Amino acid sequence: MRIRPVIIGLVLVLISVPGYLDTPTLMSQMVHYMMGTMTGSIPGAGSGSILKQMGYPSRSTVVPLIQYSFVGLALTGLGFMVFGAIARKITSQVTVNLMTGDAKEPEKVEEVKEMKKIKEIHTSPQFTDERIQIDNRSLRILQERLAKGEITANEFQNLKRLLE
User: Fold this and answer.
1) What is the distance between the alpha carbons of residues 9 and 22, in angstroms, rounded to a whole number?
2) DSSP states of 8-63 as a string?
3) What's CA 59's distance to the chain center, in Å?
4) Domain edges within the chain
């Protein structure tokens, strides 16, 4: 379970519920406030007629649109909450920092040397024939280029056949 998405989703839901419920009253208050400042003391100037003349949609059209936006926000929050509840935490990945021979920290250099020894034991058998070592090194270079994305799998197979 991931706690951050759950908290974000909860905040979104908590924001959207009062927004959905208070939209009609807030819209009425805003319209009355703005119309009072716009019309001033003009007799017979109703707020609806001025807004229609200015091209604004009616309040009965705008309020549902805003409420739908708050419903979408609530659904997004629920999605975050479900994702946070279902998703598993990613285990931390191990990173290996390779260092050059002039490193200042001796512990890390020793760790790198031990890692190289382990890698040599597990990945590359010790060959006495120089030709076999060169072929093995060439194959490792090809594998690295494939892993980096420099060549495709088909190109790798073709080059591997050429080496053999």
Assistant:
1) 20
2) HHHHHHHHHHHHHHHHHHHHHHHHHHHHHHHHTT-TT--HHHHHHHHTPPPHHHHH
3) 38
4) 3-86, 106-163
pLDDT per position as a tens digit, 44-88: 555 556 667 777 787 788 889 999 999 999 999 999 999 998 987
Q: Is the pTM of this model over 0.85?
A: no
- Sequence-distant (6+) residues with CB within 8 A of 108 are 97, 99
What are the tokens at 127?
């060959």
Query: Rounded to an integer, what distance in angstroms lies between the CA atom of residue 39 and that of residue 73?
Result: 35
Instruction: Report the alpha-carbon distance of residue 69 to residue 14 in Å, rounded.
Output: 14
- Residue 88: helix, strand or coil by DSSP? coil
